[in-house]
Amino acid sequence: MNRTQLIFLFSALGLIVLPHIKNLPPSLYIFFYVLWGWRMLGLWHPQLLPNKIVTLLCAVIAVAIMVYLKLGILGRDPGTAIFVSAVGLKLLEIKSPRDVYLLVCLTFISACTLFLYQQTIFMAAYIILTSSSLLATLVLSTSPGLSPLRASRTSVNLLLQALPLTAIMFLFFPRLDAPRWLWFEENNSAISGLSESMTPGEISRLGMSDELAFRVKFEGEIPPQQHLYWRGPVLSLTDGKQWQQQKPQYTHISTRSIKYFGKAYRYQILLEPQRLNYVYALERASEYPSTLRMNSNFQLVSSNKTNQYQEFSLASHSHFYIDHLTEKDRQTNLQLPTQPSAKINTLVQQLGGFEGHHNQFARNVLNYFTRHNFQYTLTPPLMHQRPIEQFLFDHRAGFCSHYATAFVYLMRVAGIPARVITGYQGGELNDVGGFLEVRQANAHAWTEIWLDNKGWMRIDPTATVAPERIEQNVNVDQQIASGNVSFTHINSLQSVNWLRQMHRLWSSLDYSWQRWVINYDSDNQAILLDILSLFNIHNLLHALFIFATFLASLTAFFLLRPSIRAKKDQAQHLYDKFCHKIYHLTRLQKHASEGPVNFARRVNTDFPDLATDVSSITELYIKIRYQPEHDKNDMLSLKHRIRTFTQRRSHPPASS
User: Fold this and answer.
1) Could you give the CA distance from residue 366 to residue 211 in angstroms, rounded to a whole number?
2) Strands (E), 303-442
3) Which one of 6, 143, 157, 239 is at 20 to 30 Å from 577 when CA atoms are compared?
4) Could you tell me whether strands 212-218 and 435-439 are parallel, antiparallel, or unpaired per DSSP bridges?
5) pLDDT higher for 172 or 90?
6) How many domains does the chain have?
7) Where in the sequence is the domain holding 368, given as residue range(s)?
8) Considering the domain boundaries, does residue 17 fall inside one?
9) Does the residue 550 lie in any domain?
10) Would 110 be classed as within a structural domain?
11) Does the predicted model carry a pTM greater than 0.90?
12) How far apart are CA 389 and CA 387, in angstroms?
């Protein structure tokens, strides 16, 4: 084992474990790099390396850390922690080439663990880069005379040669429907987003997040900004402070006399990993795949794991009508935690809530918000006691959830069924990729009220107080920087600088990567096989036979290429001339299966007087022929030595 080889190996291992800083407990992360640094130091000071007792003590410490952290043994996080710790301990035991090969294999597996946490295009490029360093280690193991630069070039060539076969295996190797390691995951607490309950002001915290919620690509025209309502949890129950959804029923919605009308939009939605299993369809979803269900609140629900990317083809209509409201739904959406106060009753009476003109009362409430200078703010004051009354009569400033909950409460006091809808509103157009990016900062709350002969009607009180929130897009960067509400028109590109445009280009590349690579599942594979007419077993076997024949022919061509060309390089030509001279001098002929070293040894044994010249010429030929890194003057030296090789005729010793 040489130092250069080990430096390549240890550097690759250190780079591969580096991104796990977000995934491993800090104590185990530091423990690994202490072992790694210790072993790197041992390359220059071998006397500092631990003996077996100290190595065993380190193993005990690793086990103690994992037991203390209660990581367990099953699942992604415990498995990664155990494996990385074991690789760190193996570093201390490297003593032979066999240990190097074993550690290289373990390091390749460590690289695969990174894909369990991130599957971005950046992570893929990072792993390929570090894998090339591992391949360079193997190249140096088999060819110690190579320089590090030459070994790196060879490893890159190997990776490039593997790309075609890798692409074919990716496209045609049977796909698993879901990563099996997800079965052991217990929660997704680190994933942000909407929840199934809400308190006024809670959504405002998402307004400071630029994390993606989902991306949408429309087949044709993109709907106007004011129509981009992405439906999420429907909240009907309240205790006066918190709102939560009633457990929905999964009925056959088609039996409830829904009529869709208005413009139809078809689109692909790519969901980011999230906590809930809702699919945030554009209101109102009219067509969706069989893998989704629509509940009684007209929410689309997925039965798949939600802590992975999901893509669906959907269609939505801008309006719909349902002519029936069950008595149970009516009572649920009239529920009040307590009797309304005298101030609330007085306000409802002043606005005509008890006169029976429901549509007019809704307009009067919206006008009340505008006449009394209600403010839309990202940082509303705290309202712990009776938040709706404090909002309506005292502070008169709030975020979308304050307006939605107050509006629904007033509707219910007037006897109008109403509910709060949470989801997302708007989206930023990525003009490079032609899709919308909806972020957590686009989280929004609006309302629905039931009107006889009209059904559920969407009313967004925020649109009355702050119409720019609906007509324009949220400026996430400015909002985070200032802490105040900020908007940018969806089609306003004049102020986009080159840095912003580069960000959109990268986002477009990432979107394509997620759609066509990460989301390439068994369904997409079936579509591809169907397009290629390979879906039936006969055609598939026929194609595999053709591919195997082509691959075998290509391999044979490269392996047999020297004999097919029958073209020898200059060094080989000179060596053949040298062997011819030896034959004329000694009558010893080089056998076809005999290597240069064995032939030289046979000549030197029978003709010692030629040993010096034969050995030097053979060594020089081997250096030129089999070691890519050699002096350019070596070829001239080989020519000169063979040309001046003695012409004295000798005879083999007489046989006894």
Assistant:
1) 32
2) 310-322, 375-376, 397-398, 418-425, 428-430, 435-439
3) 143
4) antiparallel
5) 90
6) 3
7) 197-498
8) yes
9) no
10) yes
11) no
12) 6
